[in-house]
Amino acid sequence: MTGTDGHAEDHGRVYQARGDQHITEHHHYGGDRAEHGGPDSVRRPAVGRCPVALRDRSEVMERLRESVRMERGGQVYVLYGMGGSGKTAVACALFEEVTGNQGRVGLWVNAADRASLRAGMLAVAADRGARDAELLAARNGLRPAADLVWRHLDRSAEPWLLVLDNADEPEILRDGNWLRTSPRGTVLVTTRRAAARWWPGAELQHIGVLPREDAALVLRDLAPHSGTAEQAARVADRLGRLPLALTLAGGFLSHQVIDPWTMDAYGEQLDGDERVRLIDRGADILSPADPRHLVGLTWQLTLDAFEARGLPEAAALLRLLARFAAEPLPLALLDHTGIGAVLPRARTETALRALLDQSLSELVEAAGTRCVQSHGILLDSVSAATAADLVPALDATAVRLLDAAVPAVPDAGPHEPRLRLLVPHALALLRHAGEPSAADALAVATRLAVALHRTGDYLSAWETARNAADLGQRHLGADHRTVLAARSRAGRALFRLGRYAEAEAALSAVRGAQERLFGAGDPDTADSGYGLQLVLANLGRREESVALLRDTVAARRSALGPAHPLTLRARASLLETLPAADVATEEGGALLTLPSECARHLGPDHTVTLGARHNHAWALYLLGRFDEADREIRQVAEAYARRFGPEYPVVLAARQLHSRTRAALGHMDEAIALMADVAERRARGLGPEHPFTAASRRLLDAYRSGLRRP
């Protein structure tokens, strides 16, 4: 580690930023990997199926078609209306037309939450030609993600239509500057938020309920033999002519085979059977115009029919789905023994098929994963109508299923889009869960944040941990162990995002509370201390950092044992942070044998073992043992490249150290070639002006100037 001269060292690297601020990039070996998987699919709508017939939308469709046909760029259209009004159906119909008939590229992004929006937009950038290194840097927070996306959209060789679906929190778009215009394409937004201040310069189009005649046609499209046009119109009136409610009603009518229902019989049930009214099932009192009320009238009749046919599991499954978010939920999550507390696992398939048949749910694909999804208004309605005595078992089961889907011990790995799919469901559980399940739900959400962090998705990790802590605190209180652990994780993510002042404040506050409540030797206190010492090192407070790291090592050794991965990892950090003279004497010289100790306890390919070897090579370099350092860092760099890919930051850090050892041994041509490659890859991924890129170029210039060991 160098002082304040601003040139880059390989492991804990200092970069001159603004004034006397210094940025150190510490590589955190428990947690990050390159992206090897493909991006989320954005070339098709994230809906199960587009409507067969789109009723009463001809005017808005023609206006949208005309705009796309004229190939005018720089247009933003906003479709707004209440939930269930068919905004997504209009967007889907336009998407299918322009991609099928006009050869225009269609790009579909779920904008319901920050994590989904960012992942989808980065997938758009990948589709438009962004390289893995650029995407990795954006995901790691090392370059502005929105700038990357729109640069590639502006450079697109083909015209495009970009749909931002479910943008019901437009502040998300504004905060990240995600909504822009481009001469190469048209943007179409669907939202419930109509205020013009959110959509400056956009053309707004209201999507309301259907006219009576068209609403009746929707019912007859789905159930043509159930009644006359006038009978269908009367049912449509009772359902408020809301497209979602009409679709659910038509799905019910079309699937009654043995004893088919007529439109009149269905209407009589809507009017006369008090069992279908949400307020009679312990729900919040809703106005007749509330879309949850209208949808509730339809699904309750369907579930009553399931009960009559001996399929109560369908109702149980729908209530379970309503504990999650109205986003794609991986089907594998339902295939778990834990579901047995709500419905027999062997009946899950039958129950799901019943929901699909009645249009209560649909199958979609997201992030290369088969998922089930239900409309948000439907899930809100079901949740509101769920009897209070059923809620604890539903919450506990939902937490159990999500717990099984999140890695038990998150490790370094490639970018995993399927993890991001779980984020809205983890937060939805925390919104729904009562006090008995809140702590367990928060623990799962925090572990999910750790898993996201360790794939390099630091923004999603921070947002997940922060939001989870806020939600959990409502039931558990600010001083609850699980709430503090979530806030500690949020602080760790802030550090990785380079927001050091915020990270120091957050981690100092959390560690202080943990020390007061649980003691200095508690594992949670030690975890926050480990994160805080990284921040202090980056702020140039080296002595404080080293003292805190030594305390962390002692606490972990006492609480977890000397062979625990977290203990070994903290000791490996000493190899990086201690001055060379101290490394040789620390622990009676035993610290220099740490890599072999890690390999013995964890295996040679364990993340902690590789990190210890990297740090060990750095220590050997500082001690002037260049031959040993050269052999070790070459092997580490090769192992990193196989595991993480050639563009990942820790791979480049290892190669930079390898260039130093080659230069120290007099192999300047090899050192220059290695350093040129590192500088080129950093320029490609981070941009030519990034401090990391500049530091690599300074080292390369020093080599070329004949300095053997800069």
UniProtKB/TrEMBL annotation:
Renumbered to this chain, region (Disordered) spans 27-46
**InterPro entries per UniProt:** NB-ARC, NLR-like, P-loop_NTPase, TPR-like_helical_dom_sf
Q: Indicate the segments annotated as coiled coil, or none if absent.
A: none
Compositional bias ranges of the Basic and acidic residues kind: 27-43
Q: What positions does the domain NB-ARC occupy?
A: 60-194
Molecular function terms from GO: ADP binding
- Protein name per Swiss-Prot or TrEMBL: ATP/GTP-binding protein
Q: Which source organism does the UniProt entry give?
A: Streptomyces fradiae ATCC 10745 = DSM 40063
